[in-house]
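haha ok so turns out i had the wrong file open the whole time. this is the CORRECT one, sorry everyone. sequence first:
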Amino acid sequence: MSVRKATVIVYRAGWVAFFALVLLDLFAGLPFDRFWVWSPALLSLAILVGASVRSRRMQRDPREAVEVGVPVRGRWSALNSPADRTPSHGTHGYGQTYAIDLVAEPAQGARPGFKVLWPVVRRNRDFPAFGEPLFAVADATVVHAEDRQRDHLSRNSLLAVLYLLIVEASLRDIGGVRRIFGNHVVLDLGDGVFAAYAHLRRGSLAVRPGDRVRAGQQIARCGNSGNSSEPHLHFQLMDGPDADTAAGVPFRWRGLEVPGNGETFTAPDNTVPDGRPTP
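then structure:
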């Protein structure tokens, strides 16, 4: 186990210990000073600050952008794009420095917008991205594939977003990559570059670990699992297969400029006719 992985485990264990001590103190009372209740949380915060400083240092000299294909087909728009800022999601954690979120926009107004009060949540089928096919961005080997987590309701109202940010995201962070990314696939593109597809639809994976896939081959469908506000694809490149310890890698799309936040684009359909993975 690497030092970075061990540090991540200690970080999460600190939060678990903190919440456990708080509950014990509330319901049973603790025989020692309450400073010790806070000590695991302080340790986790110190680790978080240290990791943030280290990530900023690493990104001062980013590697050259890697050219890959587009992971979707048809008309989509971008959210949290690295074309506007890095880190695109406000954190270097989970290798997200250059990540991008994509939502399907087949026509103007087809995607439900944000609501302040009502409806608080929406069903996934209300969003055109839900169930849309996703494609390999290069010839690659599947190193991780998971699709057993449920697709939850949307979080695109004020109340739901507050719940997501204050409660759900914190608990998912303690749960690690699996709970943040939800159902996801990681592809080894070679030369130390890995592509991650997150928030996939449960039961939609067309590949498994060890499969060889070709550029343009369908590998899964878009869903709403994990730390997600609505059905969308979270896509990123990173320098290792484990998002807990990997750093983000910048990318550019072949034949298409990476869109900024809110910009729509139409990805060409160059899907591989035979979508079966190669053993």
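The first strand starts at residue 66 and ends at 68.
again sry for the mixup
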